[in-house]
């Protein structure tokens, strides 16, 4: 999925740990084969080739698409997994240190829009309206995969575990003798102590490009198809990684006040949003 996964766990023997690592990473690899936009042969990337007709998809892919569409509706498109054509242009822009060609962005816009993706829950099918569409799950799949790997470990009886996919982390029971897993945050500095939860941080600290003196984030605003230029770092705590991951991106696009309103509407979710100042949801402390 374009990033590194790591797992930390506590168990009774090295042999049991090795077996658990192998099975958890196998589950992540399975999801990569289904969900990665970097792989031409992924299930995700097969969908545009069958545009115009309903396609039966795996339960994992359907779950992520359904969750994504619900958040797209809730945010009026601020979260949109159909941004793939624009995201590909911005990957080239970061590589070449130049802005995407305006004509190319206009062409990409014609293939973007969450309302062009249709789900049938009864039959478990997905229909794309346009063969030029490209789906990108970079803002949700890593959190889902972290949840899935943690579930594999729990099924093996290993509950003291942490799964990290870059800035997306999922936690089981705490380490021995601890109240939770201690996770450090920057700007401003803080330490979270978490168990049976997930946390995701979204921002431009690591993924950005500076062009003609202006800094553009890797996070794309669906309304403009431009990388975000306002500084914002969002940390979301939720019960599941799939929610923390996707909400962190949605809040980044919405900005401070609108993003905070989104968080307050989700039970059991809390966030800290840092722009020119830090604001926290009611449940953060």
Question: Could you characterize what this model shows?
Answer:
- The chain is α+β, with helices and mostly antiparallel strands.
- It has a domain at 171-280: ApbE-like domains (T-fold, Roll), CATH 3.10.520.10.
- It is built from 8 helices and 16 strands.
- A 7-stranded antiparallel beta sheet has the order 1-5-6-9-14-15-16, with helices on one face.
- A hairpin with a 3-residue loop joins strand 15 (270-274) and strand 16 (278-280).
- Helix 7 runs antiparallel to helix 8 (256-264).
- The chain is globular and about 60 Å long.
- The chain starts with a strand and ends in a 5-residue tail after the last strand.
Core attributes:
35% helix; 3-stranded antiparallel β-sheet; 285 residues; 16 strands; 23% strand; 7-stranded antiparallel β-sheet; T-fold; single chain; globular; alpha+beta
Biggest sheet, spatial arrangement of strands = 1-5-6-9-14-15-16
Q: So, CATH architecture of one domain?
A: Roll
Structural class, from helix and strand content? alpha+beta
CATH class of one domain: Alpha Beta
Q: Which sequence of SSEs, written as H and E, runs from N to C?
A: EHHEHHHEEHEEEEEEEEEEHHEE
Using only C-alpha atoms, the radius of gyration works out to 19 Å
Overall average pLDDT? 95
Biggest sheet character: 7 strands, antiparallel
Q: What is the beta-strand fraction? A: 15-25%
* Poorly predicted tracts of residues: none
**Gap from first CA to last CA:** 32 Å
Number of helices: 8
Number of distinct beta strands: 16
Q: Give the CATH H-level superfamily of one domain.
A: ApbE-like domains
The name of the CATH topology of one domain is T-fold
């Amino acid at each position: 999925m374009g990033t590194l996964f790591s797992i930390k766990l506590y168990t009774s023997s090295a042999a049991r740990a090795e077996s658990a690592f192998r099975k958890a990473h196998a589950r992540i690899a399975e999801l990569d084969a289904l969900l990665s936009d970097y792989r031409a042969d992924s299930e995700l990337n097969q969908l545009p080739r069958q545009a115009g007709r309903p396609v039966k998809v795996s339960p994992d892919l359907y779950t992520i698409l359904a969750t994504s569409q619900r958040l797209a509706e809730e945010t009026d498109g601020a979260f949109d997994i159909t941004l793939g054509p624009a995201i590909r242009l911005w990957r080239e822009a970061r590589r070449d240190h130049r802005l995407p060609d305006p004509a190319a962005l206009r062409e990409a816009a014609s293939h973007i829009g969450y309302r062009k993706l249709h789900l049938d829950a009864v039959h478990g099918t997905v229909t794309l309206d346009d063969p030029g569409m490209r789906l990108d799950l970079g803002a949700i799949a890593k959190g889902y995969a972290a949840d899935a790997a943690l579930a594999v470990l729990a099924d093996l009886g290993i509950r003291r575990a942490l799964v990290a996919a870059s800035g997306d982390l999922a936690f089981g029971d705490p380490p021995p003798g601890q109240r939770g897993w201690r996770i450090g945050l920057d700007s401003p500095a803080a330490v979270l102590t978490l168990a049976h939860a997930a946390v995701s941080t979204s921002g431009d600290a690591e993924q950005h490009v500076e062009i003609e003196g202006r800094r553009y984030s890797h996070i794309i605003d669906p309304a403009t198809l431009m990388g975000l230029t306002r500084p914002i770092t969002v940390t979301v705590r939720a019960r599941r990684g799939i929610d923390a991951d996707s909400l962190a991106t949605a809040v980044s696009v919405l900005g401070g006040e609108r993003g905070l309103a989104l968080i307050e509407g989700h039970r059991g979710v809390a966030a800290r949003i840092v722009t020119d100042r830090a604001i926290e949801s009611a449940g953060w402390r």
